[in-house]
Amino acid sequence: MPVLVASDLDRTLIYSAAALALTMPDARAPRLLCVEVHESRPLSYMTETAAQLLTDLGDAAVFVPTTTRTRKQYQRINLPGPQPAYAICANGGHLLVDGATDHDWHARVLARLADECAPLDEIREHLMRTADPVWVRKHRVAEDLFAYLVIERELLPDEWMKELAAWAENRGWTVSLQGRKIYAVPKPLTKSAAVHEVARRTGAELTLAAGDSLLDADLLLAADRGWRPGHGELADGKWTAPAITALPERGVLAGERITREFLRAARGGTPAGPPA
């Protein structure tokens, strides 16, 4: 039976220049491969070693990029290895099959959101009204599914985040702070739901996963084995679970380690260390 590997992308497999965490001496820094260009500028990277491991993984498992990015943002990425047959975008709101949107899946998602959550317009209006322009740089809506703010994090009041989380909870939404972005996402809009659908279609009996943020927690819990890097929202909260290995590596070297662990497990090997 095929092995399914569902991985978050940003700050899990691929890294912006600001997130690389190259703390070693310059002469010992890993060689990097640019995997995303935006507006004619390099944007995201992985190590060359990770790129080769990911290429090998594409031959050993069903690799499914699993991201909160919109479809347009995802399609800027040029990952090494075979073109994934499936990709999950917009935190599970869109399932791509051979690069094209599965409209039946999207319709099912929309129906569930309409039944279980307050409408996006209500959430957006609240953010516009309560978020202070002093620390908000951008208001954004992604794929008409969820909203996020780009902020100056050092100016963000802690109490505002707590109040927003409580307000959103009562309306069927969840709030997550990732780097310079605050996400407001409907609770039923999950990566795990889309991964379960891919597992059903492919007949996969083993699911591996990795992610760094609160929006990846459901994905990790749904997997048979998972990994999280030593940075990010989950690491900051010391989040873990019985089948999850908390890696010590941070930055782009964490991405390399995660890809190596994926490949070892997909080939039937044992993990390098016990879950933390």
Describe this structure as you would to a colleague.
By secondary structure, the protein is an alpha/beta fold. It is 33% helix and 26% strand. It contains 9 helices and 15 strands. It has helices at residues 48-60, 71-74, 103-116, 120-130, 158-169, 191-202, 217-222, 233-236, 252-266, and strands spanning 3-7, 15-16, 32-38, 41-47, 62-65, 86-89, 94-97, 100-101, 136-142, 146-151, 173-178, 181-186, 206-210, 225-228, 244-246. The strands form 4 sheets. Strands 5-1-13-14-15 form a 5-stranded parallel β-sheet, sandwiched between helices. Strands 9-10-12-11 form a 4-stranded antiparallel β-sheet. Strands 2-4-3 form a 3-stranded antiparallel β-sheet. Helix 1 (48-60) runs parallel beside helix 9 (252-266). It starts with a strand and ends in a 10-residue tail after the last helix.
Q: Which blocks of ≥5 consecutive residues have pLDDT under 50?
A: 271-276
Order of helices and strands: EEEEHEHEEEHHEEHEEHEHEHEH
Cα end-to-end separation: 28 Å
Strand content: 25-35%
- Helix and strand content put the structural class at alpha/beta
Question: What order do the strands of the largest sheet run in, or round the barrel if closed?
Answer: 5-1-13-14-15
Choose one word for the global shape. globular
Mean pLDDT value: 95
Helix content bin = 25-40%
- Helical run tally: 9
Task: Outline the biggest β-sheet.
Answer: 5 strands, parallel
Number of strands: 15
- Using only C-alpha atoms, the radius of gyration works out to 18 Å
